[in-house]
Amino acid sequence: MRYMQYKGVVEREYKKSLRKIMYEICVVEGLNASLGAKKLGVAKEVFVFWRNFYRLDKNQQLFDQAVNNLEQMKFLYLNEAKSIDISRPLHHVDEQSLQGLEEQIDRMVEYYKCVHAESGGLATETGKLPLYEFVQELLEDYKSGRLLDEVQNQREKA
Q: What is the pLDDT of residue 54?
């Protein structure tokens, strides 16, 4: 039999499209090629062909998910970056203070968001963005007193 003949037989038996059948077997049930082929009553080679054709192999699915994530990341900071003016002067240039640190961290977050938007999310340099955003949150926790509370709670537990 040919692939199309196998396809017709399986679709008639399950009363669904082959894509749905393969999705249920590969993704929902998580069967490997041998068990999936046995369940459908087809040769393993046929099953593997269908699994690859519908991109239901685990590695193919992971790759497709990574590509989708990259596509979504492309637009993540696009609107924000339009309103950022990187060239504006710093207010706390000549001082070593908490306000100066906070301003510089804010500026670095803005810079990396602009780089991210310009590169479509593909610049490796923007890998530092989550670090700077974390430091921003840490500074906010420090200024609000939440960091001190957390430190005291940890000290009491120890």
A: 92
Give the whole-angstrom CA distance, residue 45 versus residue 10.
Answer: 15
pLDDT score, position 71: 72
> Measured between alpha carbons, how far is 47 from 109 in angstroms, rounded to an integer?
49
One-letter identity of residue 106: D
Assess contact for 33 and 56: CB atoms under 8 A: no
CB atoms within 10 A of CB 36: 23
Which pLDDT belongs to residue 39?
A: 92
> What integer pLDDT is reported at residue 83 of this predicted model?
75
Phi first, then psi, for residue 130 (nearest 5°) are -60, -30
Q: Which residues of the chain have pLDDT under 50?
A: none
Helix (H, G, I), strand (E, B) or coil at 91: coil
What pLDDT is recorded for position 74? 67
Backbone angles phi, psi at 76, to 5 degrees: -60, -50
Q: Given its phi and psi angles, is residue 111 left (phi above 0), alpha (psi -120 to 50 degrees) or beta?
A: alpha
**Burial of residue 156 (number of CB atoms within 10 Å: 0-12, 13-18, 19+):** exposed
